Request: fold
Amino acid sequence: MTAQLTPRNIAIFVLLAALVLLPLYTGLSGNRFMLTLFTRIVILALAAVSLNLMLGYGGMMSFGHAAYLGIGGYAVGILAHEGIASGFVQWPAALAASALFALVIGALSLRTRGVYFIMITFAFAQMAYYICAGIARYGGDDGLTIYKRSEFVAPVNLSNKVQFYYICLALLLAAIYLVWRLVNSRFGMVIQGARSNDVRMRAIGFPTYRYKLVCFVVAGTLCGLSGALLANHNDFVSPSIMYWTRSGDLIIMVVLGGMGTLFGPVFGAVALLVFEELLPTLIKLLGTPMFGEQAARASEYWQIVMGPLLLLVVLFARGGIDGLLRKLSKERA
Amino acid sequence: MTLFIEQCLNGLQFGLLLFLLAAGLTLVFGIMDLVNLAHGSLYMIGAYFAATFAAWTGSFVLGAVLALVATLLVGMVVEVVAMRRLYGRDHIDHVLATFGLILFFDESVRLIWGPAGLSLPLPPWLSQPVQILPGVFYSGYRLAIIVVTLLVAGFLYVLVMRTRIGMLIRAGASNREMVGALGVNIKLLYTLVFGLGAALAGFAGLMQAPILTVQIGMGENIVILAFVITVIGGVGSIRGALVAAIFVGFIDTLGRAFFPDLLRMILSKEAAATAAPALSSMLIYLLMAIVLVVKPEGLFSAGQK
Amino acid sequence: MRKALLAASTALLLAAGPAAAQQKTIKIGFVSTFSGPTAVIGNDMRNSFELALDHMGRKMGGIPVEVIYEDDGQKPDVGKQKTEKLIESDKVDFIAGYIWSNVLLASLKPIVDSKTFLVISNAGPSQVAGEMCSPTVFSTSWNNDQTPQAMGTYMNQKGVKSVFLIGPNYAAGKDMLAGVASTFKGKVIGQELTTWPSQLDFSAELAKAKASGAEAVFVFYPGAAGVQFLNQYAAAGLKGTIPLYTAFTIDELSLPLQKENAIGVPGAQEWVNDLPNEQNKKFVADYRKKYTGLRPTYYGAQSYDAAQLINSAVVLTKGKLDDKVAVQKAMEKADFKSVRGGFKFGPNHVPIQNFYLQDVVKDADGQLSLKTVATIVKDNQDIHFSKCSMK
Reply:
C-alpha cells in the first residue's frame, strides 16, 4: 500500500482529516449538533465496515445485519437498567452476545445460498426484533431510556461529547485496520476465493464453510460493538434499532461507498447520512422559487428524489463512490 | 368450536390473499431471477386505483376491473423502464434498486392522492354477514375473497399447466437460456410475466382495500410475508407458494388467536400482554428459518438455482 | 453563596448582552408526524398551530415568531434525533408537539437536560404526569388514562356489566386499557393488544371478542387503524349486536373514511368542535375557512392551545426568556382563552379539565360530524400527580 497522490488517496486523506478535525470546528462554531450528527455517522460507519467484511469481501449478502446493532445496544441497555453501569461489563457482554448470536445464526444460515441466504438472515433478524419488542420489563416496543452512559475509569467519560466522538472514531479506525489485516491474510484470501468460486476453493481442500463462519462471527461482533456505541449515543434503545429497513440502510451505505473496499463503507455512511440531512433543506432552497410558501412542505417529499437516485446508483455507478474515485485515478495515470 | 371455525376461515382468507401476492412474486423471481421488493407498491397502487375508479364509476366491480387493467399497465411500464435493466445483475442490486422504487412510489402516491388515504366502500350485497352454519355468522366479503382467490388460483393453474405461455413460463423457471435459444421473444415474455405479477399484486391490494383502508406504505409489511412464502414454497413454484401461503395465513391468524392464552399460562398477565403480539408475529419467521435449515431451497424448488 | 449569586447574575447579564431585555425572534420547534399514514394527524396539528400564529399576527409580545417543523416519522429514535437537532442546532426557546407517547418518552431526556420548555400537545404517557415530571415540561392535552377513565365511568352509567378490551401494543395503548379498567365497575372479560402500528387486520381479535360473550367492547385505535377497526367491526356483523365504546378512535380525520359505521358509537374527549365558547367558535370557523375541506380535530385544538400557552408566557415575561423561573411561573398561570373554555394546570403541569361524551351526527351540510352529548366528568385530574416531585 504505497501512498500515491491519486484522487482516491487524497479523498481518503481529506475524509479522515475532516473527521479528526471536526470537533475543532464544532467547538469554534458552537454548532454542537454537527458533532452529534457525525458521532452517529461514525458509529454507523463502523456497522457498515463490519457488513462490508462479509458482504463485500466474503460475498455473503446478509439482510439482517441490524440485528447485531440491536443485540449490542440491548446488552448495554439491559445491564444499565439493572444497575450495572460499568463499561467493563457492558461492552464485553455486548461483544459476547453478538458473537454468540452470529455463531448460531451463521452456522444455520450458511447451509443455504443465494436468495435463501438473504431471507434466512432476514428471518433471524426479525425474530430478534420481535423478541426485544416482547419483553415488557425492558420497555417492549417503546424501548428503554439509558439514564447513565457506560462508565469507565476516571479520565474516560462518555458523557463528554468530544471524548465520546473520538472514542467512536478510534474504534472505527481500529476496525478498518482489523479488516485490512484480515483481508490480506491467508484467511482473507480463502474468503475472497470462496466468494468468486466456492466449489473450486473446496476442491483445493479449504473447508470454506468454517472460514465463512468465522468471517460471519467477526462481522457480527464488530457490529455488536457499533450497537453498544449507538445505545450510548442515543441514551436510548428500542426494537426499531434493528428494524429491517435499518439492515437495508447498512447495505445502501456499503454499496454506495463501494463494496469490498477498505474505506468505501465510511464514504457510503457519510454520503448517505449527510445527504439525508441535507436533501430536505436542498429541496426547500431550490423549491422556494417554484412552490413559494409551499416549499417548506415540498421538502417533506425528499424521498421522491432519494428513490430514483438509488436506482441510478445501482444502474450506472456500480463501484460506488470508491469506484468513481478509482476511475478518476486511472484517468490521471 | 365456532370460534375455532371462524379463526380457521380468517386464516384461510388471509393465506389465500397472500397467495395472490406470492404467486406474482414467485413467477418474477423464478423466471427473471429478479428480487422485487417493490411488489408491495403494486399492491398499494392496485388499491388506490380501485378506490379511485370505484368512486368515478360508482360501481365496485367496474372499479375493480379498471384497476386491474391499470395495474397491469403500470407493471408493464415499470418493467420496460426499470426492471429490464436489472436482469442478470446481483441480487443486492435488485434489493437496492427496488427499495428505491418503493420510496418513489410511496411519495408519488402521496403527491397524487394526498397523505390521508382513501376508503373503498363495499356494495351492500357484499357487506352483509353470512350464516355459514346454524347460528354462526361470518363476514360475507371475507367469504367472497376466499371464493374469488380460489378461482384465480385455478385460473393460474390452467394458465401455467395447460397453455403455450404457461409452458414457456415453466421452461423459463427451470432453464432460462434454453427458452431464449428456442427463438421465443424473451423480452415480450418477460414484460407479460411482470405485468401478470403486477396485476395479481394489484388484485390482492384491491381485494384487501375494503377491509383495510387504502394508505401509503400498506404494501410494505404484507410483501415481506409474501417473500417469506415465496422462499418457504421454493422460488418459482406456484404450487409451493399456494401451500406456503395457506400455511402462513393459518399460523399468523391462529397464532394471534390462541398464542396469548398459552403465554398467559406461563407468564404473568402483564408480561404476557406485551409478549404475546410480538411473539406471535415471530412465529412465521421461525417457520421460515426451520424450513430453510431443513430444506435449504424451500419446500418445492422449481429450478436448480 | 452571595458571591456566587453575584457572579452568576453578572455572567447571565454578560451572556445575554444587549439582548437581555428582549429576544429578536421567538424560536419554536414543533415535532410531529408529517410522513407515513399518520401524517394527516401531524398536518392537522401544524394547521392549527399556524392558525393560532395567524390569530396572533405571527408575533408574540411584539416579537416575531419562527417555527421549525420536524418530522418524527412515528419512530422514537428519529423523534429523538430531531429533538436534539432543534435544541443543539436551531437553539429553540420552546418545543411543542408530539403525537406518540413512545416518541415523547425517547425524546424527553435531551429536552429536560437542556431545560428547554416543552409543551406537549397530544402524547400523555403516565410517567410524564408522575415520576418523570419536570418544571419545564407542560401538557395541553391529558394523561393517557384520563379519557378512557371517563369512558369507563360512562359505561357504568349505561349499566354495562362486562367488557372486552382491544388496543395497540405500545405505551399509550397499555395506558388506555389500564385506564378504562380502573374506573369500570363491571368485569373485564378479556384483553387483546395488537402489534403496532403494522397490524391492521383485526379478524382474529374480533372473533375472540365475539366468542367471549362480553356485553360490550372498548377500543383505542388512533389514526388509520381506527378506520379499519370500525369498518371490520361492522363487516363482521358485530355492530348492532355488541355495543362499542371508544377513546381516540373516531375523530374528524377518520370520520370521512368510517362514514356510517361510526354512527351511534360513543367516544370520550376533552374537546369537541361544538363546545360553546367564543375562542372555540373562532378557531373552528377560521380553520374551516383557511383549510378548505378540512375540519379541526382535538389534536389541532390542543396544538392551538399550545401556541396560546407559549404566547401567554412570552407576553407575561415581556419576552425575557432567559429567566427560566419567571417563564415557568408564567406558564403555570395558563393565562389564555382556551378553546376548551377554562384551562388550568395541576401541580404536575397536566390540565385539570372536563371530559365530554361525543356522538356522530349528520350536521347542517348533511355531512357526518361530532357533537357533544353530555359532560361525563368535571374538572378531572389525573391520578399520577402525587408521584410528581417537580424537581
Chain B touches chain C at residues 2-3, 6-7, 10, 13-14, 110, 115-119, 121-122, 127-129, 137, 139-142, 210-213, 215-218, 221, 253-254, 256-257, 260, 273-274, 276-278, 281 (CB under 8 Å).
